[in-house]
User: Fold these one by one.
Assistant:
Number 1:
Amino acid sequence: MDVLSNVLKVTNLTAVPLGSREFLAPWGLRIDELDKPMILLVRRGSMWLRSRGAEPVRLKAGDLVLLSSGTGQVLSSGRDTAELEHYTQAIARSHNRVVPSLHGKPDPSAESTVLLGVTYEFSQEGFGENDRAGLLPEIIRLSAAQSNEDSELQPLLQLLTQEASRRDIGFELVQPRLLDALLIYVLRAWLRDQPEGSAGWLGALRDPQIRRALTLIHASPEAPWTVESLAQQAAMSRAAFAKRFADLVGEPPLAYVTRWRMDLAAKFLRESREPVARIAGKVGYLSETAFAKAFRRRRKMPPGAYRYQRSGRVGSGSAKVRPNL
């Protein structure tokens, strides 16, 4: 069981290409309401990245940045550009993939900046959306030098650039798969440089004993896991395991087990017509009543109501599912 792949599958990860955009200086963009992770690759020129509480960073051609949440980040042609517009508004007013200067008069002496962008969407109320702060770091920045030295990431970026430029036959099939891989390769490249015991949930996957526990939870969510049984599988004492798990993952072992079970159950409810009792058994509950109580605590509604609200119609040509209130 590959835990990261399992999480991304359950949350229905979907890459949404933003395409390449050429920005004519002077320009400035604010990203203050980002509801989806975004990767931006500087294909040409340069720009400044400003984040709340941090010094501005200049990004050059070949540099890459992943933003997982909107907390006041600013992208701009100048270090101190004050006039800003929202990123989505700038994209909306772009013509032929060229974003005009905010001031209406491009600076002829300034090189334009070309950005290749992609956002990543997750299913409603899954691990990747509500708990994304635990899954992805707020900002990942990889320099062109770091990317060029990475034997996985460098050829992938070359392929993405070529595909975006040529748009040859099969482009619409190839590009989404490359963009899915991009997120994984960026996370791998970033994680290699993080110190042990850091990097949150992703960093926990590097700890052999905690990774084993996470793997077991994801491989067999229906098993009657206890802190003692997980600690035994990790070859640790109960107290040491509980502390390390909470420190690295960000929550106690059984809280993680319950959350993952509810995320799986939500996926089953959205995408299948299986009875609620059967779904309860698949995620470790012998009693449908106990499952319904746990699900209500997590999703603020009963399983049947959740299914009705989130899916409406389940399966091809199926009738609407009535809420089990």
Number 2:
Amino acid sequence: MNNKNSYRQFCQTEPSIPIFSKDWWLDAVCGEDNWDVALVEKGGNIVATMPYYIRTNKIGLKLMVQPQLTQTLGPWISYPQNQKYEKKLSFDKQIINALLEQLPQYDYFAQNFHYSITNWLPFYWKGFQQTTRYTYIIDDLTNHDTILKEFSSAKRKNIRKSSQIVEVKFDLPADLFYNNHKMTLLKQGSKISYSFELFERIYKTAYEHNSGKTIYAVDKESNIHCALFVVWYEKSAYDLISTIDPDFRNIGAATLLVYEIIKYVSSLTEKFDFEGSMIEEVENSFRQFGAKQVPYFAVSNMSRRMAPLYYGRKLMRSLLGK
């Protein structure tokens, strides 16, 4: 049995594999033939995994990067029980080296690691680089009233105001959600960054696995003020895509949707992840939900063939002021 088939079976039995690393998710965002996985076994049991996606660009460079709409990849590691800290660090080095040895040749590597990976030193020793990024997480969904109390006063005001104006509904079809997102972005002078075909695959697959839901706010004139597409697995839900019509932004219905979807997923998962942003205005909004700032690693590497191209273009953009 090859690694991918073993991994498919493993994903059926191991609930802690993050949703973005599950085989069905990778099938949807990469295509069944465009991803693979490195595995480490001990005593006949899988103790570490690292799925990866490779695409080739127009000039033939092999890029091992994040698929679209995929928040994290990177390694998943199962540690022995009651392991001493010193042994854990040694185990990290051994396991990560074993995973890296299995990766095929690439010119550029870039993955966001799940925040459970807190030790990237073994990657550093192999020539990788790292940038710390942040997400925002509500880590206990059991008490809805407590969650609401942690919202800022402005967020609570948005909920009171918008609940008098809009109705909250679920299960907006994929085509209507996509077209709404496309329309709201155009109003703001932006273009949508992903195809309908990709979104439809994710939407259908998430619904089939009881791991996704759309929620939207609509007024009496049938105007959609905003919508969310949220996905989840046993450990966490993720605010994957948010749409807000700028014509109705001041109504504040987006806050109402966040609160309602948190209540919905609270019986299905443990945490709510806003899929953080390094954009200052977005960070400010996430923080006002009472969410906790959590760091994660963006890890990268490049081949000798790639480095002159990368740094040459970076220098040229700098000289041109771009």
Number 3:
Amino acid sequence: MPNYLIWDFDDTLGHRAHGKWTASLVKVLQMEMPDFPIDVEAIRPHMQSGFPWHTPDVPHTHVTSADEWWDSLCPLFAQAFRGIGLSPDKADRLSRRVRDVYADPSAWRLFDDTLPALSQLSGSGWTHCLLSNHVPELPLILSHLGILDEFAVVANSADTGYEKPHPEAFKRVLNGLTGPGAVWMIGDGYEADIAGARAMGIPGILVRKTHPQAKHCCNDLLGVAAVLQESSSVRGDPR
């Protein structure tokens, strides 16, 4: 029976090199209004809520295209731009530039341990899957980074309408697996990745940080193999 690892992407396998949402709005301002005095700390509070992953208990299956997904966020971006003094018209116009900046594949990077860890675990017989709360352009980002073909299943909340830790987000991956043996979740978020997986009966490994309620934690991805090996030994798994 095949054994599967379900990976989170953002801050687990890869990251946006020059910051996330606040940085993207700042970049838009620098491009469109280079002489405008930018107050980063006035933008940041607007990025703490309003994204679909901030309300994971609320599905957004009614959003059926990438354009609709981004359109639903434009009011949030426009509010942030208005909050630093832009007129409503300028705020609305700039809000529609955030997509080009944030989702630009060239802005994304893999962590140094990502490819070695994926290769090591593939060589040990594990099949990789991806489950991410992300933007619609995630497949383009993965392709640019050269890892899209590493995954047997890619489930992205922008496509499925379900954000981790919603049970349906995990079901979208599990339903695509063929006769799974062992299944593990690996991610950097305790609530979304580890607790969400545990609620579905899937053990998890928290990476790049620790949490008092996480049974398995690793400082980096190269420690994942040791956790899996130790767990299989405890279970008496002959593999």
Number 4:
Amino acid sequence: MKTKLLFSAVAMVAGSLLADTTPGDLITNAVTSLDAQPSYSWKTTVVVPDDSPFKPGPSTGKLVKGGYSDLTTTRGDATTEIISKGDAIAISSPDNGWQSAADLENAQGPGRFMVMQARSAKAPTAQILDLASAATALKQDGDVISGDLTEAGAKAQLAFRGRRGGGGGPGGPGGGAGPEVSGAKGSVKFWITGGNLTKFEYKVSGSMSFNGNDMAIDRDTTTEFTDIGTTKVTVPPEAQKILDAKPAAPAAN
């Protein structure tokens, strides 16, 4: 009898703990678990309307904890690869091969844009927490947790930030103030199986004003995780030289 009572008490406590776990808690726990892994890979795809002037291709990423990260993005036929470790960044462009961020940040044209993308990049797990905090009334249906984004949350995703896991958005090398965004709305989904985060998706729409010209934006971005714990980053010799180089000393006055 005592054993049965003890078993019943344990079951009640476990049931109570499960009942108190919110969808937001499940997302946070899954992110914590993924961040604790030694490495992982991801692939991000972005779907936009056929008439959209900006059609980002798929991007892939690899992250080794305490080591290198590797982001490869495509736009049309152009492929850009960014490898970093700490503050050291090496960028490979279609026309100029491997260069350091310091070489490119004062350059004209797309080089400056690539540096901005590299320096502002976030790991996908950081973006997941941003999305979850910007979602309202998260609800769980099996392995899927979903919710609508607040207007501010949708607007943040519409604005270009060059995220490592989010697919990015329209933007250019000019820098300066970003475009004005209005009518922003969106939704988000997270797939969590057995406590493991396997995929997330967010859809955003709204209107952007570029130099007084309004343009409708409708974007569906999906990121899937693979090779968790087994991902490795191979650094080309040209990139390794850049990453190992010591920063130049400032010029004397």
